[in-house]
Amino acid sequence: MNFENMNFCQSCAMPMNDEDHGTEKDGSKCEDYCKYCYQNGEFTSDVNMEEMIDFCVPKTAQATGMSEEEARKMSEEVFPKLKRWME
């Protein structure tokens, strides 16, 4: 997978293609967040960064073939740099 030109959700770090983007209040595509994290101009869940990491680790491990320990280590490095968690 070529990550260089790929968009990542700034909430959960999921790689996004055109169909994966969330929506703004006016229905337009949100460039920063995926459809699972952001719809109609609002986040879909009220979680903190740790809770999001806990939710994403098993999915990341399954999608990438990493162990959950590796996925957690990567997530703990990446998530603090995502827009949602920096604000």
What report would you give on this structure?
This protein has 87 residues and is α+β, with helices and mostly antiparallel strands. It has 2 domains: 1-46, no CATH class; 47-82, no CATH class. The protein is 36% helix and 20% strand. The chain has 3 helices and 6 strands; from the N terminus they run ββββββααα. The chain has helices at 49-64, 68-78, 83-86; strands at residues 7-8, 15-16, 21-23, 29-34, 38-39, 42-43. It has a two-stranded antiparallel ribbon with strand order 1-2. The protein has a two-stranded antiparallel sheet with strand order 3-4. Strands 5-6 form a two-stranded antiparallel ribbon. A hairpin with a 2-residue loop joins strand 5 and strand 6 (42-43). Helix 1 packs across helix 2. The longest helix has 16 residues, at 49-64. It is globular and about 40 Å long. The chain starts with 6 loop residues before the first strand and ends with a helix. The mean pLDDT is 93.
Summarize the entry for a quick read.
It contains three helices and six strands; from the N terminus they run E-E-E-E-E-E-H-H-H. By secondary structure, it is of the alpha+beta class. The longest helix is centred in the middle third of the chain and has 16 residues, at 49-64.
